[in-house]
Design a protein that fits this description.
Layout (H helix, E strand, L loop, with lengths): L1 H12 L5 E4 L6 H11 L4 E3 L3 E2 L14 E2 L2 H9 L3 E7 L2 E6 H8 L4 E5 L2 H7 L7 E6 L3 H11 L4 H19 L6 E4 L3 H11 L1 H12 L2
Parallel strand pairs: 1-7, 1-8, 2-7, 3-4, 8-9
Antiparallel strand pairs: 3-6, 5-6
The structure holds adenosine-5'-triphosphate and ligand LQESDW3C.
Adenosine-5'-triphosphate binds next to helix 2, helix 6 and helix 8.
């Protein structure tokens, strides 16, 4: 119990609490977190995950993800380099310790964009983040957004929709998430997100002014 208390205290002393974004693929996590990082670039930093999926047009290696082979990813997992990792829609994803440390070293709020397996695994660590669930207004809207995004084949789209059904149920489980945002109208959802994180945003702004 004392160990847990001290490691929590230590993680609090190490900087502001990270923020975990989770929710079905296509709900709008990236859209919302990119808006947040654009408006508050000196407050938030993104934990760049590793993945074995191919980059989408416009995505940049080292910025959106570290794109790696399955062999390289498995080796890094076996070496204990990851806080959590999961297989989603046939591809491997993971949060490296280095990705989180790189953001925390700058005293920024570390943003993680992870699936629900990642949420379950992060809950077993001492990271102590704020958990934000981003949900679509309906499955029909989610499917339209994913189709309109034009990033998926029919096969990967079906896998993502299947995972989304489970994910939407998970989002309703009590005591998992601190904040639930239904991303229907983007501006409203963004306003709710800023409001929910306002205390942490102000703390980081204040700390950077006094340093
Ligand atoms: N409120 C909204 N209204 C309409 N379209 C939206 C809204 N939010 C996001 N979108 C669009 O929906 C699509 C999916 O959004 P986004 O890529 O941000 O989802 P995501 O949750 O990050 O998905 P993934 O987990 O697959 O990365 C994008 O094309 C985005 O522009
Ligand atoms: N458990 C983890 N999940 C992750 C990580 N990085 C991203 N994700 C989740 O994967 C799906 C699909 O992402 P996409 O970019 O291929 O659309 C989505 O739910 C992300 O939240 C991670 O490091 N760990």
């Amino acid at each position: 119990m004392y160990m847990r208390y001290f490691s929590r205290l230590f993680s609090a002393m190490a900087g502001p609490r990270p923020v975990v974004f989770s929710g079905p693929s296509g709900a709008g996590k990236s859209t919302l977190l990119k808006k947040l990082m654009k408006e508050y670039d000196s407050v938030f930093g993104f934990s760049v995950s590793h993945t074995t999926r191919n980059p989408r047009p416009g995505e940049v290696n080292g910025k959106d993800y570290h794109y790696v082979t399955r062999e390289a990813m498995q080796k890094a997992i076996d070496n204990g380099e990851f806080i959590e990792n999961a297989v989603f829609s046939g591809n491997m994803y993971g949060t490296s310790k280095a990705a989180v440390q790189a953001v925390q070293a700058k005293n920024l709020i570390c943003i993680l964009d992870i699936d629900m397996q990642g949420v379950r695994n992060i809950k077993k660590t001492d990271l102590n983040p704020i958990y934000v669930s981003i949900q679509p207004p309906s499955m029909a809207v989610l499917e339209k957004r994913l189709r309109d995004r034009k990033t998926e084949t029919e096969e990967s789209l079906q896998k993502r929709l299947h995972a989304a059904q489970v994910d939407m149920e998970f989002g309703k489980e009590p005591d998992i998430f601190d904040v639930l945002i239904i991303n229907d109208h983007l501006d409203e959802a963004y306003g709710q997100l800023k409001e929910a994180l306002s205390k942490e945003i102000n703390m980081v702004k204040k700390a950077s002014l006094s340093s």
